[in-house]
Amino acid sequence: YTVLYFRYQRRVRGFSKFQNHKMKLLTHNMLQSNVRDVKKPYPLLIKATKVELLEVPYEAELVKAMIPKIEYSVVVEAATSLGYNDLPKQLPTTLEEEFLKKLHHALFKIDVVEGELICPESKRSFPITNGIPNMLLTEDEL
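Given the sequence above, the corresponding structure tokens read:
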């Protein structure tokens, strides 16, 4: 999926704009805490202090390709925590255009610029600065 997403971003006018914005809900959906002895490292909770909406052209095929690769319930929970409540709680059985556009909005347009990700078990905080989550651990956490 990363290659597909990268190709998608390269086709979008103003690609350099995307290089400064990396903490989208698609990214969040793939991250987990790697703190030693944590049994429930996923999903990380989002505590955002700055969120931006980006203009990202809609591509139905890209959204469809992402669906099998994401945990849909985690996307819904994250989007809701950021104030986006347009996604249905359950993944629809038929992928209508209206739903795909809403999912596209959640996955690609919502950009967490500042804030933190929080491990659900250890409550360890991972800062998000300029759209980049810092997932580095200290030596005693390895």
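The beta strands are 45-53, 110-118, 125-129, 132-133. Try to locate this feature in the token string yourself.
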